[in-house]
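Q: Hi! First time asking for a complex rather than a single chain. Here are the components, and I think there are four in total. Is that enough to go on?
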Amino acid sequence: MKMTPPPRDRADCRAVSEVLSRVGDKWTMQVVVALLDGPQRFNALKRQIGDISQQMLTRTLKTLERDGMVERTVCATTPPQVEYALSALGRSLSEPVRQMAQWARAHLPIIHDNRRRYDERH
Amino acid sequence: MKMTPPPRDRADCRAVSEVLSRVGDKWTMQVVVALLDGPQRFNALKRQIGDISQQMLTRTLKTLERDGMVERTVCATTPPQVEYALSALGRSLSEPVRQMAQWARAHLPIIHDNRRRYDERH
DNA sequence: CGGGATCCAGTAGGATACTG
DNA sequence: CAGTATCCTACTGGATCCCG
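A: Yes, that's all I need. Here is the structure of the assembled complex.
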């Protein structure tokens, strides 16, 4: 069986880049992580995340739904209830994200330090 | 000793988000991967990546240098020669990126399919 | 050769007000 | 409660021309 090659191919680079820029926007990861605990309704999600506007939460959830990462369930009651849940695809993303999170925790202070020193020199 | 917890903390989410959006721009990953083979000069890098403008290559390299991910070496000859090399920090990033690349390869077709179907329904 | 300086279009992010 | 509609700002990506 074939081993998965390292990402040296141009198409691979673009694929990685596409995924990183897709999930690398300001709110996507925070929404995904908030949904890891289980399904959440809109305003509960909003409260948990904190300083996100309802506009940006709506947009982020819609994009995640479009990509098939979250599933949206509407109960036609009054008041309406809408539940958002991670799909299997969305949960599977949390694995590579966990790796990236470890790297971020380990190296982000160094990066910030590098930036500070660079800016002082220029 | 303490196990590294999953990225549920708010500060962690933001750290992940920051790294993902930082390296998730259009060219950063392609430059990093191009430099994995070894140090490269500016125009060699430009030729290898292909359709990047010299403007965007300059910006991307400068940001990577500022973060301490690449090291820039100038030989004051005529014509001037400038070599770019990945630092240890830059190379260490390639590990979580490899994980992300595998996920991208495995799931990007599904995502594109999901989008297509979503757009047809709306 | 390896950039810097400008200018420009498109998109992401956000504040606010309104609605079924 | 769960959005939509509008308007605005800032940043990203890019094209072009210039420079030592």
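A: DSSP finds five helices and three strands in chain B. Let me know if you'd like any chain examined more closely.
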